[in-house]
Design goal:
Layout: H1 2-39, H2 42-46, H3 51-77, H4 79-84, H5 87-109, H6 120-146
Length: 149
């Protein structure tokens, strides 16, 4: 009995640490996201659009960054709670899995990135972003399915 409790506690501690890393990685993704407009010369691409559409794009872009900040801070500061496996913690982790699954799918099958991956640094950065997303998917899936057990 004691051994089983010790294993559960160890799994929770390991998952908590992995979730804290995930929280930090969200913050790192903000840096990548903030460099994107300059990397793809975004202002010149959206300049011909009507003002409302340009404004809408910048609002959506800002909301996405706010989500990354929120996801990161929630995960970093509440990693123990998320790893404990309550119904709310699992539901939030399922939401994060859905979010990052959609982002990975869009990044692979919808976005045409080749014209922008013109340097080794950009290709490595894009690959690193995808590795981070797969890490987030793995950790949140673990937390959603077996957190606390």
């Amino acid at each position: 009995m004691f051994e089983k409790k010790a294993r559960v506690k160890m799994k929770t501690i390991n998952l908590t640490l992995l979730l804290q890393v995930a929280g930090l990685l969200h913050i790192g993704l903000i840096g990548a996201n903030l460099s994107m407009p300059q990397s793809v010369n975004l202002r010149s691409h959206i300049a011909p659009l009507p003002p409302f559409i340009r404004q809408m794009f910048w609002v959506y872009y800002s909301v996405l960054n706010l989500c990354l900040i929120g996801f990161g801070l929630i995960t970093l500061t509440q990693a123990g709670t998320l790893s404990a496996g309550s119904h709310l913690a699992r539901a939030l982790c399922v939401f994060f899995v859905a979010f990052w699954t959609l982002r990975l799918f869009v990044g692979i099958f919808v976005f045409e990135m080749r014209p922008y991956l013109t340097t080794t640094g950009r290709r490595l950065g894009y690959g690193a972003i995808n590795v981070v997303i797969v890490y987030l998917l793995t950790v949140y899936t673990w937390a959603a399915l077996i957190g606390g057990n």
